[in-house]
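Hi R.,

Here's the chain you asked about this morning:
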Amino acid sequence: MFGNMVSNMMVKPYQSPLFDKPENWDLDYERVEFPATDGTTLRGWLINGGTDRVIVESHFGVQCNRGGWSPQGKGPIRPWKEDIKFLRQAKHFADNGYSFLMYDFRGHGESDLGPKPWVSWGPEEAKDVLGAVDYISGRSEFANASIGLLSICMGSGATTYAYGLEDGMAKRDKVKALVAVQPLLYSCFVDALGMPGFLQRAGARVTKERLGFDLAEPNFVDHTPKINVPTLVIQNENDPWTQLPMVEGYYNGLTVEKELKMLDLEKSRFAAYDWVGTHPADVRAWFDKYL
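And the predicted structure, written out as tokens:
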């Protein structure tokens, strides 16, 4: 029983329905669907802001989707009190000449489940990031566009795994820059939660049966040297759900032009997710340099 409970917290799909829409922001957009590289159907919004530069945003996992995160339905203990609306940054980028692809990872929002019907914290979702880039690259109006990757938490992990794959992201030459917001290894997250060891072990057994591997074993940090575009790493230094040496290891592993932006925000991981939407010009400045 405990194993199923813990595993469900970590890998159960479809834990957060869409709660926002582009019409609320007066955005010109179209609903899109496209395949991940393994054929899983993904769905999202393409916000129209121009044809020269496109941002592909990959959201964080489990209790999130392309629209962001909402405290509704999350129980009495909530890590953040207000909606975190990713359309805030989409609006800013569109107003400044960027198109903006917002899509749901497999098992999130309106996208389909993959062959493994659970959230994998990045290894499976890497195929989604690649599919999103391939979709934009294949549209005729973006034939000459540069692509930037805005990857948040699990999105950062999935993007980094995508760089580690054979014929992976490093082969997509339209991608010119990456912003990685709070990359997080599963093992660091579970340790930071202070979950008793017997619960960790019970959950790990169930999750391994579901996914076919131990979530604590894959390590996207090993793939950071394969990232081949300028990369900005953003991290709240007061984030209680991570281990800062892991973030520093991710940054130190990068061999490209890079910057580590440490934020002094309140003691919540979600504060940095919110910061992206309240300070989108700071994020856009990185893409403006390279796209």
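The mean pLDDT is 95.

Let me know if you need anything else.
M.
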